Amino acid sequence: MSAVISVRNLRKHYRYAKPGRGLRGLLSAQHVTVDALSGISFDIAQGERVALIGPNGAGKSTTLKILTGILQPSGGAASVLGLTPWHDRMALTRRIGVVFGQRSQLWTELPVRQSFALLRRIYDQDAAVFGARLNRLVGRFALAAMLDQPVNRLSLGQRMRCEIVASLLHGPAVLFLDEPTIGLDITAKAAIRDLINAQAASEGLTVVLTSHDTRDIELVCERVIVVNAGRIVVDQPTDELRRRFLSRKLLTIRSAAPALRLDLPGVSRRPGEPHLALLDVDTRVARIEQVVAAALALGGIEDITIEDPPMEEVIHEIYAA
Q: pTM for the whole thing?
């Protein structure tokens, strides 16, 4: 398959003034250069779903902003759908969809339907083609009951569904998602992931996703690019990354007894507090259901939570490998 996104030796640096102490230091501030990207290269084929991950400040959002034409790089080359994003931004916006989890492209005071109608005008879409696409997306994303509600009266999960539909109304070939599930509850996150997968499969969309949620990565993307300090440190299929680095679960158990006496291979205990046991489970050694069953057999269990380790810990494991 041909590459729809191609990045070669992409670099981006920022220069800012770093003042010293006192008035004299303010007047004689030194200029400091920070490298956000230090020469990254990769290709993404048509229809691929790729996660771009890393710790805060790694350069992933900078990469996304360059690929969508928001930023211009300091060096290197990139193309999206054969276009140079920072030179051909107007042409590119008609062929890509972009969702930033913390920013809305909808008009908050207007009903959702009117926001969608305005976007049709902005993208200069044929009314019949737009109407047919909107009907399909409203059905798939279950938005019928929300169309006449003002955006600012929707829950966060409902708004994010509308944001994703808004990014798809002009029929883009590439969808960029920056933290699309941030702040959502478990049910809303699952719904968003399912909808992204269904839309990508039916339309052959290329998806580039940034997220700190390992479930977003595991359930949406087939490939992971890990960035740290502006460089790519891992680029591999998600299944391989899962086998190597996502083999742990965090088990939080609240019990009536102050301490939980659970000694199993592959299970280690993190520092906690009375009545709250924090267990690190290596699923290559111990199946999570066996650990839960052993805990329940002790009696007095009030609550159990199973979570993936924080992405920062996963990234640390990747760097340590």
A: 0.78
